[in-house]
Design goal:
By secondary structure, this protein is mainly α. 68% of the residues lie in helices and 3% in strands.
Length: 374
């Protein structure tokens, strides 16, 4: 590429201007696998609740279709266009997150959804991609500022602070993910260490205090410490599912725990159903696919043609890896239950569509970049 010659003629390189098809294939496989697992995990409850075993699968497939179309539109337009809309998109996300607090649809005592006719979406998912785009723009526009601790803190307060506060009111787990995504992007952009250590300590203390102020959050911590307590019913059933799967599982579609024992099994706890039906082997394969996907994103970020593209992909890699780690940690009771979805696999239309948009951004950055160069 650009005057270099290959030392191994048997290794193929993609032509200039092509997207990273390896990443596209990985995402396509995980998307298909996710649809299969949504159907497997939800068909029983969907039949009882709606009389249609395909209810959740159909809704997820529609969201996947919308996300795929959006992904290719982003690839066609190109990621550099996002520089022009970074601030407007950020303010739109702020407005949506504020709107949902007062006018959002309340489900399970939380106002997280906005309904427009038959269509619903979660503004907090829009906030994630809006923050990634804005921080990539701010960092790339003046990278020297990130070397100054004062400017670094000001940048964090202005960009991450408003979204974190608005989302944390009703959805602390998503707010923490937003905070961590922004923190990772700023950490990579700056040689300063002490501001991040200070913020981590203050944030941990603040998050604990905030969690204990709400009864249901305190209950989740008690359930984590003592999973046999009644408040940990969902977690215990998920652990039963994981333990009963053995090495190779009971077989696809043969889960017992999804039959009313694990509440909303197609959502946050879908990994437990994967373990039960496909066993430890299947779980390891899923984790391995995520590792390959994130590694591919890291390679694209390393070889990106400009800093803006690089930090876009860094933010996307951080988003996906954080959600995978947190979801699996919750399902295995390593951390308290936080309600985080498993990317591309858990049921959730807004999350899936936004993730596919992010993949479209990463694929746009990958155009003309050889991530396999030596």
């Amino acid at each position: 590429m650009q005057g270099r010659t290959r030392t191994r003629s048997n290794v193929r390189r993609k032509s200039k201007g092509q997207i990273d098809y390896t990443l596209l294939v990985i995402v396509a496989f995980m998307l298909a696998f996710g649809l299969i697992m949504v159907y497997s995990a939800s068909s029983y409850n969907a039949t009882l609740q709606t009389g249609n075993s395909l209810y959740y699968l159909t809704k997820q497939a529609v969201s996947a279709g919308v996300g795929i179309v959006a992904m290719f539109i982003v690839i066609k337009i190109g990621y550099k266009f996002l520089k022009k809309v970074a601030w407007p998109l950020y303010f739109i996300a702020i407005g949506l997150c504020a709107y949902v607090l007062f006018f959002g649809r309340t489900i399970n005592n939380s106002s997280r959804w906005i309904y427009i006719g038959p269509v619903s979406f979660q503004p907090s998912e829009v906030a994630k991609v809006a923050l990634i785009i804005l921080l990539a723009y701010v960092i790339s526009k003046n990278p020297a500022r990130m070397r100054n601790a004062k400017d670094l803190i000001i940048t964090a307060v202005i960009t991450i602070g408003p979204l974190f506060v608005l989302v944390a009111i009703n959805n602390l787990s998503t707010a923490i993910i937003i905070l961590l995504i922004g923190g990772i992007m700023l950490f990579i952009s700056s040689p300063k260490i002490w501001p991040f250590v200070a913020v981590a300590i203050i944030g941990a203390v603040g998050a604990l205090a905030f969690a204990l102020t709400a009864g249901y959050r305190a209950a989740r911590i008690r359930a984590w410490i003592d999973p046999e307590h009644n408040e940990a019913y969902q977690t215990m059933q998920a652990l039963y599912a994981i333990g009963s799967g053995g090495l190779f599982g009971k077989g696809l579609g043969e889960s017992v725990q999804k039959q009313g024992f694990v509440p909303e099994a197609q959502n946050d706890m879908v990994f437990s159903i994967i373990c039960e039906e496909l066993g430890l082997f299947g779980a390891i394969c899923v984790i391995a696919m995520f590792v390959v996907l994130v590694w591919r994103l890291i390679l694209i970020a390393i070889h990106a043609k400009d800093m803006f593209g690089s930090f876009l992909v860094i933010g996307i890699a951080a988003h996906i890896s954080l959600q995978v780690i947190l979801n699996i940690a919750v399902v295995t009771n390593t951390i308290p239950n936080t309600g985080v979805t498993l990317p591309f696999i858990s049921y959730g239309g807004t999350s899936l569509a936004i993730l596919l948009v992010e993949i479209g951004i990463a694929l746009s950055v990958s155009k003309g970049v050889d991530v396999d160069e030596e």
